[in-house]
Amino acid sequence: LYEKWGTRVFDNISASELRHMDSMKSLLDNYGLADPIGSNEVGVFTDQELQALFDTLVAQGSASEAEALKAGIAVETKDIADLEALIALTTHSDITEVAQNLLDGSRKHLAAFSRGR
Predict the structure, then answer these.
(1) How far is residue 59's CA from residue 96's CA, in Å, rounded to a whole number?
(2) Are the C-beta atoms of residues 108 and 9 closer than 8 Å to each other?
(3) 3-state secondary structure (DSSP) of residue 93
(4) Residues 14-70 pLDDT 10s
(5) Measured on CA atoms in the order 71, 105, 98, 20, is the torsion positive or negative?
(6) Are 67 and 74 in contact (CB under 8 A)?
(7) pTM for the complete prediction?
(8) N or C: which end of the chain has fewer CB within 10 A?
(9) Rounded to an integer, what distance in angstroms lies between the CA atom of residue 14 and that of residue 4?
């Protein structure tokens, strides 16, 4: 959506999200778990529910810059709920620490999308 609208918040947050993915990849490696992204291209998901959500939000965000910001809010809201659920389920301190850091980042991203910057 940054390519479509040139809104700075999308560029800033996409760079941050790459760092978040690196943090999660590190946990996957530490626990010997397969990377669910594998060699998929950006925007391609093996989970059909996630793929449908991605497609819906990209279509929404392509309609207008305001709708793009709403899509960003939807992504961060889902991220926050998922991370809170992960924190509640895990007993591993390293997972809790990474998830808490990502949660803090998602809350900042949500605020940035809400401000439209």
Answers:
(1) 33
(2) no
(3) helix
(4) 889 889 999 999 999 999 999 988 889 989 998 999 999 999 999 999 999 999 999
(5) positive
(6) no
(7) 0.89
(8) C
(9) 14
